[in-house]
Amino acid sequence: MSGTLVENFRLRLAADWVRAGGIIAYPTEAVFGLGCDPADQSAVLRLLSIKRRPISKGLILVAADWSQLQPWLQTPSPAQLRRLRESWPGPVTWLVPAATHCPHWLTGDHDTLAVRVSAHPLVRSLCRRTGSALVSTSANISSQRPARSILEVQLRFASCIDNLLPGPLGDLARPTPIRDLLTARTLRH
User: Is this prediction's pTM over 0.85?
Assistant: First the structure.
């Protein structure tokens, strides 16, 4: 099988797992991420359990484009939307006021949701293939160092996840910065 066929097969398999309620690992801009369907409460709670992450912290959603994030968020002002679009696609995560129907398992104890339109080609392809945004949290046990290689993901999570999508990490040395859309303040550098 040629390289492109193998990559397409792997991408289709990962997307199928997400749509079936599975947990996958995949490369992002800086580290490997763990992801699932944000609308699937069981999958999100399983992911939080795997990471030993409290639900109160909330999660990040990544997407291929703005339209995949809109259902989860309040409509930003034109100036705020311009600020988002100036940084996307790209390695900037924004805290945006969540829609009133956005589930607690995504927002945690917050009235905002962390979101990003990724520039990472594999993340974008995966979101397009699943037809939705994805939960994206670093592949680590909470407060431990995130996995930066396939081997680290396998050693930590082989028995806990349903699929590992191989591929290169992006160029960032650290996870994406997080900014607050309402204040423009940077919360994580």
Answer: yes
